[in-house]
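job 3f2a | input accepted
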Amino acid sequence: MSNLEIFALVVCGLILLTQSIFLFTDARKNGFNQWMWGILGLIQAPVPIIFYMIVKKIRKKEEDELYDYRDY
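job 3f2a | predicted structure (72 res):
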């Protein structure tokens, strides 16, 4: 392996690890299954984080609508 290939593997590993840690901690704060999101973050980048943000936004919208109906 050349130095460039080793550098690329290290950078990819750091990106995946950082993404996984972010997904794990944010999912725990927002009541999602943190282990599932953390493992998904280790598999591929950036698809899991994009999908997580979409799911998070949809869930927040549904919760906001639910709370709006409870005010009446």
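job 3f2a | The longest helix spans residues 3-29.
job 3f2a | closed
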